[in-house]
């Protein structure tokens, strides 16, 4: 399908769902799309992104019309996320130490770190030995004019790194942007899938993928949850995979020569060390990109991690280990939601971002 048609259908669904939810409450009255300012978040590499494409999709989806395009805002994801982070109190961030000395933190579920759409305990706020008061001190001073932040937007596909400065009144201005890095969360997913292929050898996994694609998708979805932690994990083996494998040999024998995994009555157990190995390529690439930006001497005070991949404790701890001694490493408890909530803030107050784009194609871009 054409990309424009796909995006239009997605926006139309979200618009209709939002209006349906709002109009459920009779006391609110009846609302239509024209009653709202619509804020669309867009990739950080804006220079390569067709603005007209987003505008046309929004019009076709019924968010705005040709006459009401002024009610459409296009917001860069890192700017939205940083806007939200600057509003958070000290207990709105993960607290972490600056070394690998405490290799065995004691994670536990917390209401503050759990999305309303996630099962209890699926996200974890990790508390290390260092007192959280230090984080509080760091955050109490972060809203001063002139402070600079390196924002690391950790997505499924890409890692985008940009430097922002807080101007007078709290307005954000982008100073620098690194080349886009395609080593996001799916790099880890790919390593996990390669490991499954190593376990279920002799072509078993490839045949299973071809014949049970929906079950493979379910396994990958389950793994997205598992890669948020830094500990031994286990994932249920679909019944069909077990049956498919046993056409070749007993399923236990597939695990005999594989390091880092074991079989336990329908469950695949993966060691902490093996789980961490799935992250190696991605973390090395992110570290390299960050060092290149930090060597430019832009007087950066803090590194802010946002995006869905930043849910990973392994990623957060690695960045803290590598850069914590020199920089403040901050990550909100809900790093993926930061983009959404920051977009709402910018919709309410567009002047929070310094306009760097001019011309009619940009609509009223923060002007």
Please specify the SSE layout and strand pairing.
Layout: H1 3-23, E1 38-42, H2 51-60, E2 72-76, H3 77-85, E3 108-109, E4 124-125, H4 133-140, E5 148-154, E6 159-166, E7 172-177, H5 185-199, H6 204-211, H7 213-226, E8 233-236, H8 239-245, E9 261-263, E10 267-270, H9 272-277, H10 280-294, E11 302-306, H11 313-323, E12 328-330, H12 337-348
Parallel strand pairs: 1-2, 5-11, 11-12
Antiparallel strand pairs: 3-4, 5-6, 6-7, 8-10, 9-10
What can you see in these coordinates?
- The longest helix has 21 residues, at 3-23.
- The chain folds into three domains: 3-76 and 341-362, no CATH class; 80-183 and 279-336, ATPase, nucleotide binding domain (Nucleotidyltransferase, domain 5), CATH 3.30.420.40; 185-276, no CATH class.
- It has twelve helices and twelve strands.
- With 367 residues, the protein is an alpha/beta fold.
List keywords for this structure.
single chain, 367 residues, alpha/beta, Nucleotidyltransferase, domain 5, 3 domains, five-stranded mixed beta sheet, 12 strands, disordered C terminus
Short description:
The chain is of the alpha/beta class and 367 residues long. The chain has helices at residues 3-23, 51-60, 77-85, 133-140, 185-199, 204-211, 213-226, 239-245, 272-277, 280-294, 313-323, 337-348, and strands spanning 38-42, 72-76, 108-109, 124-125, 148-154, 159-166, 172-177, 233-236, 261-263, 267-270, 302-306, 328-330.
